[in-house]
Amino acid sequence: MELSVMSGGLRFLVFLGIFVLLEAGWLILQRRQSYPWKPALASFAVAAIKRIIEVATAGIAAGFMFWVYSHRFWTIEITGLASGFLFFLLLEFCYYWHHRWAHEIRWLWATHCVHHTPADMNLSVSGRLGWTGLISGSVIFFAPLALIGFHPLAIFLGLSASLFYQIWIHTELVGKLGPLEWVFNTPSHHRAHHGSNRRYINKNYGGVLIIYDRIFGTFVEEIVDESEPVVYGLTRPVNSNNPFRIALHEWFNMARDLNQATSWKHIPGYLFGPPGWKPGRRRTGQQRQA
Q1: What does the domain layout of the chain look like in residue ranges?
Q2: Contact of 182 with 221, CB cutoff 8 Å
Q3: N or C: which end of the chain has fewer CB within 10 A?
Q4: What is the C-alpha separation between 289 and 233, in angstroms, rounded?
Q5: pLDDT tens digit string along 228-260?
């Protein structure tokens, strides 16, 4: 398991590096634009350390998933297009809710907010993912797939494929894609997802598909208007290229808030309330701070 995780992680880093260089070359040579090399290198450092952590902890996540699978209700084998399509839809469903709750619950946001720290949108951002998914309990959100009978290996491979797919949607080089926008998560949809403008916060959670956002009311269309461009990043920017600060800053913020709590009743709110929760503040659904 560790070897497969290592090889998959190395492939991801290689592909990411190639795509980043191609995008940077196009921007510099064809569009005469500068490229944010320091943030890109910081994203690559975050990605590399994440792969090391995944190799070291792969057995824990896999062990949990196989334990759930050992208590499965049925055994569902992916033997054709129908079963494969069903698995894909269910995987996307789990991904949607995991991603949505990662924006709405601070304990999960502490891991996911790492991905939203860049102030630019380019392919390097796809590699800037949190290191603490095991602490947040990310694997729990995909355990129902194992419980109903899908093999853990299929689940991990499906998530890896989704991760590879999502590399290309982190760019400003691709405009809107016509009818594909109705079904798939595209660069336009994902640019909106990364926006810290009020209209874009907590929208477009899909991985490969955008259909669940349309079903559950979290879809927003990117408005192409030079007078109101998408502003990327957090509402409280980290302003650092240190990979350790990028990856761990919200956990330290959480610890600070817990230390300053004036009542034990505030502890659940600081841990599991929405990002930006404070005692007495009503939930607005528009908080995305770190």
Answers
A1: 2-272
A2: no
A3: N
A4: 10
A5: 899 999 999 999 999 999 999 999 999 999 999
